Amino acid sequence: MAPTRSFGLLLALLSALTFSTSGPFAHALLGAGWTAPAAVATRVGVAALVLAVPAAIALRGRWGAVRRDLTGITLFGVLGVGAAQVGFFNAIRYLPVGVALLLEYLGVVLVVFWMWAAHGQRPRALTTAGAVTAVVGLVLVLDLSGGARLSLVGVAWGLFAGVGLASYFVLGARETPEGVEGVPPLALATAGMAIGALVLLVLGATGLLPMHATFGQVTLGDQRMSWLVPVAGLSLVAAVVAYVAGIAAARALGARLSSFVGLTEVLFAVLVSWLVLDELPTTVQIAGGALIVAGVALVRLDERRPAEALASA
User: Fold this and answer.
1) CB within 8 A of 77, min separation 6: which ones?
2) What is the pLDDT of residues 166-184, one digit of tens each?
3) CA–CA gap between residue 157 and residue 90 (Å, rounded)
4) What is the pLDDT of residues 277-294, one digit of tens each?
5) Helix crossing, 264-277 with 125-142: angle to 10°?
6) Which residues neighbour 142 within 8 Å (Cβ) at sequence distance 6 or greater?
7) CA of 170: how far to CAs of 3, 173, 298, in Å?
8) What does pTM read for this prediction?
9) Which residue, of 11, 67, 201, 243, has the greatest Cβ tally within 10 A?
């Protein structure tokens, strides 16, 4: 049974919160000498293994849905999982994390244009206002007033991550025709992560992507610990919980609304950095967070209007 829209909103917030923890975990691995593709492949590969049995149980009697949607699942794994993460992890090698996040979340705007171009869902006034408000909020939360010079390579990786993020929301929200069984969210997340990991490993084995990992002590915040700790955090919290909740939320809310709620990941990332790295949010960042919430509220209000009009007809 599909989750209700209210529960879907809670799932979207949970997904954003757990995704936001990936920054400190990934930073610990990259700082210890891991390459971005190695970190991503390990993250999603371990997560896929953890979810393999539950996903198989969810698919009992529904393997035909996987065969019918194999192309969509593959695209989800390559673009929505692999491209988004590799793009972001590579972007933070050249850019401040805040700038990289802003570039990645331009993918949310791409979702609105995609739904308009591909499905004729022209954004109404409230959605447009919500998009502008949320983007302004992002700029404030990321506090980019320092005016640092941007690396073109980093910008390219950040925009690449944005395309991957847009693909994640659009492909995760696809609906199956009436009377046709779709792939359960748990199975879609698992298959997508497995395909993403496999593609990255193949590209690494052929030398097209750099693959390097170290297996000693790493630094997370101001603590030294085993490399297994950030790997577990990336795989279980920032992948298993984040992807399953995110896909279920996208199906309950639709691609556009779920993508805008996903903007709260940036706000959560500020809070996580405060807790883990002792970086206090500034007044400007708090104001930006309020604008993000306002933007999401405008989009949610716009999404509710057609249903309310239908009910009163």
Assistant:
1) 191, 192, 193, 194, 195, 196, 199
2) 888 888 766 655 555 678 8
3) 6
4) 676 667 777 788 788 778
5) 20
6) 98, 99, 101, 102, 266, 285, 288
7) 18, 5, 20
8) 0.76
9) 243
